[in-house]
Write a structure and sequence with these properties.
Layout lengths: L2 H13 L4 E2 L24 H4 L9 E9 L15 E10 L15 H13 L12 E6 L10 H9 L7 E4 L5 E2 L5 E12 L10 H9 L3 E15 L2 E16 H8 L12 H10 L5 H19 L8 H19 L6 H13 L5 H4 L1 H29 L6 H11 L3 H10 L6 H11 L6 H4 L10 H21 L5 E7 L2 E7 L6 H16 L4 E7 H6 L13 E7 L8 E4 L13 E11 L2 E9 L1
Parallel strand pairs: 1-2, 4-5
Antiparallel strand pairs: 2-3, 3-9, 4-7, 6-7, 7-8, 8-9, 10-11, 11-16, 12-13, 13-14, 15-16
Helix pairs in contact: 3-4, 7-8, 7-10, 8-9, 8-10, 8-12, 9-12, 10-12, 12-13, 13-15, 17-18
Bound molecules: serine (SER).
The site of serine has 10 residues, from strand 8 and strand 9.
Length: 602
């Protein structure tokens, strides 16, 4: 089923159930200074969720364009994108509320029943296999203690077996748009996208399947009956509301039997156009270009222009990042503007403003790319020059102000080269020069540097184990080319020119798990760089430590030393803290550089 049909069926399904079809609001929020872009279908409806009557009534449905950039580093994998369309239905106040306009509202019973019907009905909906559904419901958190047993019962009454419904404690099934506004518990639907089917899963196995994108979240029904102020629940709203959201890209992926969104009809014209023009087969780079250009087109159509502040800054960053990947793919200059036409063509029947803005969109992208190109070359030369010893805040600022390098670009390049950037000093410089009217804008883009939380620390150590394991399996030519850690996973880039065989992956995985089982102590020493080198420590030299470097050693004289590596840390004290190590993905990122993503399971 094509995306056009999915949109149409969704709107018709809810129209037949008394919902008014409302248009997508602009990506630029009209009256909400707390966000730069519309990030969810509910956002333009906040005043109505808070109690104002909506002119179209109490039951609403639409397809809302959204932009979320906090996961920009993940773009390139199977499901992440920075622009997406959200299918949503709303009820403003349930039946109990005095009925002013339109039909009466509804709450959990109807919401869940209709979600189920739409997903599974062959005639009116998507005709998905009910036995492949997994459901999560709210299990209580610090603010609201009770689990949502009612939703669980409703799912069971529809025929979902109890063991496929998972009660999730904490905030995983609590949805709120930020620190302020309407919020509440939710129930989420996941679909098993594996070929053979996962069968029934324990809660832990289900969480794992979610992480590995084998069970994909396709819809979220939020029961908005609470209000938050400054991060705290201050009580119940006047009305009980319903806010549901289903990502079109994900639904298309499920309906079209693909394991990634880039092979759905929403992306294929664009991916084909990129394939035709690219001289490199770097899939990740192709997806990044496709994603960023699509988002840029929609932003410009809604009136955003590249600039150094707020929205304009995010648009600038997307275009500039796309330019870099155009180069990775060895595509011609001018490609991005041509690709923007492909996006317009794909979407103009749904979003009419695209066709009227087509020329302006192409021109804006062409101008911004050209501007960036002029400085990119000089900037890269400067970067190479100063990057040998880590980058000071002043230097990062000079790259920004003289060469137009957004801080995140410098951070990304630095991560690739395993050097550090003094972010704090950069920010001080920035304030001094008052170039950004709101420094917060660049916070909206997550930098490449990882934090120091418990999971991140574990992943740091796991990265060292993996690095050494790969050297044992593939050879000493393997060296770290980049690393990126989030609380959910590690990502490790290294020099090697061929795809790893399943056997090689298994071997590396086994070596890492063996070291975890051996419960090796982890310790560090600060040494003069020459001595560290002489001892055979691996890793990037000349970090912020100058003449003396920190070397982390896994194992000791008694157990034997498994790995010694230059690193700033932090690390766990003993490898036994890590749990089970699992490689989830192996792919090329550039000529001669492979990337592994891996998880630790408890
Ligand atoms: N607001 C919820 C979400 O964004 C449901 O629409 O997931």
């Amino acid at each position: 089923m094509q995306s056009e049909e999915i949109r149409k069926r969704f709107l018709e399904f809810f129209k037949a159930r008394g919902h008014a079809i409302i248009p997508s609001a602009s990506l630029v929020p009209e009256n909400d200074p707390s966000v730069l872009f519309t990030t969810a279908g509910m956002q333009p409806l906040v005043p109505y969720l808070l109690g104002e009557p909506h002119p179209a009534g109490k039951r609403l449905v639409n397809v809302q364009k959204c932009v979320r950039t906090q996961d920009i580093d993940e773009v390139g994998d199977a499901t992440h994108d920075t622009f997406f369309e959200m299918l949503g239905n709303w009820s403003l106040g349930d039946k109990a509320a005095p009925d002013g306009v339109g039909e009466a509202g509804y709450f959990k019973e109807e919401t869940i029943k209709w979600s189920y019907e739409f997903l599974t009905s062959k005639e009116e909906g998507l005709g998905l296999d009910p036995s492949r559904l997994f459901i999560t419901v709210f299990g209580g958190n610090d603010s609201v203690k009770e689990a949502d047993e009612e939703s669980k019962k409703i799912w069971m009454s529809l025929g979902i077996p109890e063991h496929r419904i998972y009660i999730m404690e904490g905030d995983s099934n609590w949805w709120s748009p930020g620190d302020n506004g309407p919020c509440g518990p939710d129930t989420e639907m996941f679909y098993d996208v594996t070929e053979k089917g996962l069968g029934d899963l324990t809660k832990e196995a289900f969480k794992q399947a979610d992480k590995e994108q084998k069970a994909v979240e396709i819809w979220n029904d939020v029961f908005m009956e609470y209000e938050k102020k400054d991060g705290r629940i201050i009580g119940k709203l006047k009305n009980k509301n319903v806010d549901t959201g289903a990502g079109l890209e994900r639904l298309a992926m499920v309906m079209q039997g693909k394991d990634n969104i880039f092979e759905t009809d929403l992306f294929t014209p664009l991916m084909n156009a990129i394939d035709m023009r690219a001289a490199s087969q770097d899939l990740c780079a192709k997806r990044i270009v496709a994603d960023h250009i699509r988002t840029a087109v929609f932003m410009i159509a809604d009136g955003v222009l590249p600039s150094n502040t707020d929205r304009g800054y995010i648009l600038r960053r997307l275009i500039r990042r796309a330019v870099r990947y155009v180069d990775v793919l060895k595509m011609k200059e001018g490609t991005l503007a041509a690709l923007s036409d492909v996006v317009v063509l794909k979407y103009e029947s749904v979003y009419k403003n695209l066709s009227s803005e087509k020329e302006h969109i192409g021109q804006t992208i062409a101008d911004e790319s050209a501007k960036f190109r002029q400085t990119l070359e000089r900037g890269m030369k400067e970067f190479e020059k100063i990057s040998r010893h880590g980058i000071s805040g002043k230097e990062a600022f000079a790259l920004f102000s003289t060469y137009g390098f957004p801080l995140e670009l410098t951070l990304e390049l630095a991560v690739e080269q395993h050097i550090t950037v003094n972010k704090k000093e950069f920010e001080e410089e920035l304030k001094k020069h008052q170039v950004l009217s709101r420094a917060g804008a660049e916070q909206k883009f997550k930098g490449g540097l990882s934090g120091h939380g418990e999971m991140e620390t574990k992943y740091h150590t796991a990265t060292h184990l993996l690095h050494q394991a790969l050297r044992q399996v593939l050879g000493e030519h393997v060296i770290q080319k980049g690393s990126n850690i989030t609380p959910e996973r590690l990502r490790f880039d290294f020099s090697h020119s061929e795809k790893l065989t399943d056997e090689q992956k298994k071997k590396a995985e086994n070596i890492v798990n063996e070291q975890i089982k051996r419960a090796l102590p982890v310790s560090y020493e600060e040494l003069p760089i020459e001595e560290a080198r002489a001892r055979g420590a691996i890793g990037a030299f000349g970090d912020k430590y100058g003449e003396r470097v920190k070397v982390y050693t896994i194992g000791n004289d008694k157990t034997g030393i498994f790995s010694a590596e230059f690193c700033g840390g932090p690390h766990v004290k003993n490898t036994e803290e890590l749990g089970h190590f699992k490689i989830t993905k192996e792919e090329a990122v550039a000529q001669g550089i492979r990337r592994i993503k891996a998880l630790l399971e408890s």
